[in-house]
Amino acid sequence: MSIAWHEIRDHLMFSSSTLGFQHTFDELRRSSEPLAHFADPAALLDTLQVGSRGPDEKNRILVALVRAAQSGDEAADCALTLMLLALWPGLDAVRRRSTWRRIGTGDEVASEILARASEAIRCLDLQRVNWIASTILRNIERDLIRTRQREDRHQSLRSEADPDEIPTDDQASANASSALLHRDLVRIVGKDSDLVIRVAVDGFSQAEVASELGLSEAATRKRYQRATRRLRDVLREFR
């Protein structure tokens, strides 16, 4: 029987609220300075998801959780659960975009994202990564897309030249259209083209993109507003 996406989160939340989990969390925060002042998992998650702390401080907390998740001791599962919950808004955004792209059924996408997220957390090379959340989320989404593209290519090679299997002109030109869009945006808004694409096309929130680019939310908002104003001005010239 399949488990709905929201039920996975409910299960993780329930696990994090048990007395045994709290005891393990107490051990975890005693051994990690960035986690020391959080009284319980709820306070930690609130800080990471809606708190007023800056990106650098939140990233230090995530680094501590990843280290604990990779430790292999009794606190590893506790840290992994907290990482999954901390990343949940971003994972949910990846799930929605992956479903929209028809990468798989809802259950397939949910299962794949959860498995890839757990593996990414346990295998992340902290010596090579600067921004924990954005790196994990970006890699998961990239790998989902690449896997689907590889499967499509294999299916195309196996299939006969059935008219129903032949890609439409729209499908064949999708990648070219994306490249043209990026080229045009670079010409119009310069270095903010990737920011515009991530928000307006890929569906990321400005907060997610801010974390990915290592910017404050305020700076990201101003740059996005400036870029969209420039786009509107250019469009008016064609009227």
UniProtKB/TrEMBL annotation:
GO terms for biological process: DNA-templated transcription initiation. It holds the Pfam family Sigma70_r4_2. GO terms for molecular function: DNA binding; sigma factor activity. It comes from Pseudooceanicola sediminis. Residues 195-231 form the RNA polymerase sigma factor 70 region 4 type domain. This is Sigma-70 family RNA polymerase sigma factor. Signal peptide: none annotated. Residues 151-161 have a biased composition (Basic and acidic residues). InterPro entries: RNA_pol_sigma70_r4_t2, RNA_pol_sigma_r3/r4-like, WH-like_DNA-bd_sf. Residues 151-175 are annotated as: Disordered. It comes from the Bacteria.
